[in-house]
Each structure stands twice: as structure tokens, then as C-alpha cells.
Amino acid sequence: MSNVSKVVVEGGYLTSAIRCPSPNTNQRPPNQSISLLVIHNISLPPGKFGTGCVQKFFTNQLDPSQDPYFETIADLKVSAHLFIERNGTVTQFASFDARAWHAGVSSFNGVANCNDYSIGIELEGCDNIAYTDAQYEALVAVSDQIMRAYPHITLDRIVGHNHIAPDRKTDPGEAFDWSRYRASLQAATSRSL
Q: Would you say the pTM of this structure is higher than 0.85?
């Protein structure tokens, strides 16, 4: 069940999120403004949902013997700030004020190293499987709060992983309804003015 009924950002954390600290974070560069929100998707094993394996992956506890695919990613050290499950449950792996390792080699508007200045949100999903209503509801709620807490993130500075790493990444994929998300987010931000 979704845990975003009362979403507030305090001290770099969502007060309503489940906390699951990842070691795969570090400090942002000094005086770095947080000015970009990046939407991703992930499922582990690929195409399977609700396994708990994403949380294990982001905390370096994934068992490579559990699935053949896991052997190919077992040595990777990655994380995101948030993970939104199919039922809308939100887990936070790193403070928004810290640098999570989600974007990899990336660039936005000619500025490289998006991890330095972005917040990464992973949706449980695949490029070609529709996201759930609960995920859109949670994503809009947390995006609205993130934008309030980090005002350099504006509607035109919310992108997909595919936008900042187009030669490597395709997520959140064609199944993600950008029009629905942006319209709902714009309505939410208008209400909060």
C-alpha cells in the first residue's frame, strides 16, 4: 500500500518513505545546486515485480545465485534516491542532499555528471509495461514535494534516464505516460502555490 498520504521533505528525507540506506552514495561537489529530477525504471529479475531484489541490489546484498541475470550485475554499485513499487510504496536509499549513483555517464543541457546535481527516482517497471495508478500518484506526490524543497528543479528539469544518456538507456520507456505525469504534477504544484 502507498505510503505517500502525507509527503514532506525534511532534512533531505521524505518523512513518509521507508528508509533503506545504501552504501552506494557519496557527497555532492561543494556548493552544488540540486536542479534535476531523473525518472528511471527497474525490475529484478527483469520483468518481475515485488521480489524485494531491487532493495537488495541497491544495498549490495543481491545473491548472484538467485537468478542467472544477477550474476551479470552482482559487482555493480548503484543506487537511487527513491524506489516506487507497483503498489505505490516509496523506499528512500539516500538523502536527497547526497549523491546517489543512478545516472552513470550522463549529460543534461551540456552539463555532464548528472549524479552531481540530480535526484533519481526508480519506478518498478519495464519500458513496455504500463505503470500503475498508484505509481503515478506516488510519483506526483513526491515530485511535488521535491520541487518545493529544491526549487531549482522545475517542470522543464524533469527528465527520463533516456534523455540524459540516450546512447545507453531507454528508461522509463514508451510505457511511461509523460503527458499524464506532467499534467498531474502541474496541477499539484498549482494547488500548492
A: yes
Could you tell me the three cell numbers for 103? 545516472
Whole-number Å distance between alpha carbons of 47 and 86:
12
Query: Which of 124-155 are b and which e, b meaning 16 or more Cβ less than 10 Å from the residue's Cβ?
Result: bbbeeeebbebbbbbbbbbbbbbbebbeebee
Residues in the chain: 193
What are the tens digits of pLDDT across the range 173-183?
999 999 999 99
Looking at 10, 71, 85, 122, which residue is catalytic? 122
What ranges make up the beta strands (E) of 2-135? Answer: 9-10, 13-14, 18-19, 25-27, 36-42, 82-84, 90-92, 98-100, 107-108, 111-112, 118-124
Neighbour-count burial of 8, counting CB atoms closer than 10 A to its CB (0-12 exposed, 13-18 middle, 19+ buried): exposed
d(CA 114, CA 103): 6
Q: 31: which residues sit within 8 A by CB, 6+ positions away?
A: none
Give per-residue pLDDT as tens, 97-136: 999 999 999 999 999 999 999 999 999 999 999 999 999 9
137 in catalytic set: no
Q: What share of the chain is helix, strand, coil (3-state, %, to 5)?
A: 30, 20, 50
Contact between 12 and 96 under an 8 Å Cβ cutoff? The reply is yes
Show Cβ contacts of residue 26 under 8 Å, excluding neighbours closer than 6 positions.
Answer: 98, 99
